[in-house]
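Dear colleague,

Following up on yesterday's call, I've attached the two folding results inline so they're easy to grep. Please treat them as preliminary; we haven't cross-checked anything against experimental data yet. The first protein's sequence and structure tokens come first.
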Amino acid sequence: MRRKHLITIATSLVVSALGFTTAMADVLETIKERGTLIVGVKADYKPYGFLDPSGDVIGIEPDLAKDVADKLGVDVEYVPVVSSNRMQFLEQGKIDLMIATMTDRPDRREVVLIPDPNYYSSGTNILALKSLGLTKWEDLRGKPVCGIQGAFYNKATSQNYGAEIVAFKGTAEAYSALKAGNCAAFVYDDSAIVAKTNDPEWADYEMPLQTIDDAPWGLAVALGEDNFAQMMSDMIVDWHKTGRILELETKWGVENTPFAKAMHEEYK
């Protein structure tokens, strides 16, 4: 009797596991049946994801998301995300895919599924008035420095260089505080700062320090979506192989980065 009971439990677990796998594997079919791929992207991170004058989300990462939708033969819908909610949106099923300037870290791979290889990379630097004449990280000691809530480099900038971090939820608030003189600098991704220094509105500002902590970016799908992850892995390789990332950098005014050039050389 006990053996029969154990067999029943084991059978139930197998069926349950198979059902779980089947349900999770259905996301690509769900997207196709829905006719729309829903992608979480940044809307405040020019040129990687930002709003045009009409309020549409555009940029390098929305273009990559459109590539995925075209591959699947469906429309694309962009959902603006921020650093503090992008992984939650995947876990909660609010988005199918996340391409949102996320640094690839081991702890994040425990929460979402990040396909290899990485599609992009960036490091840490600051945006500051040229007139301040900052030349080394130690020049930030004792100065208020704007940052983004949850950014991993806030702690390093504070502990290693003595900056007094003033953290904001989004970049718009941080840029406004910097312009208002409430911060001596804004510590952020060098990829975004380079683009900002090319904006005539920020002609008086510069990225004066040596970039540190260069780290790869990973796009992500929900845990268990192995088929979708494999498809994205293949697409990332193709983006590098064909020079798509380099092409998009040029399109959106970013000087081709060492990472994008190296990955193109590796896969072409």
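Below is the second protein, in the same order (sequence, then structure):
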Amino acid sequence: MISYRITSTVIGLFIAIAIIFLVRKDYIHVRHTIWWLGLAVCSVLVGFFPETVDVVARWFGVNYPPTFFFSLGFAAMLIKILRMDIEFSRQEREIKRLTQRLAILEKRDREQED
């Protein structure tokens, strides 16, 4: 049976290596990597210092530390999804504006040709 310390450390290192690989291959923007590298660092830190989760859980009044750990992970995922939706909405708005500008310019060109 593998301890969760080793599992957490390996997952963190795997995420960090995967993110660095994806940045080098230009599959992901550098500004999007901060979140994932932070997650990888947290995972490695939990692997090296598992008692940290216990201490932080007690600060927040959680009696069973793994519950706090999973709740924190769930909250982080929700925040990440919200940020992705905000970015997606911004991109949609920008595409709509660019499409409208292009239509105006094409109309102006047609009017000048006539």
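For the second protein, one point worth flagging: Helices lie at 4-24, 30-48, 51-59, 65-113.

Best wishes,
A.L.
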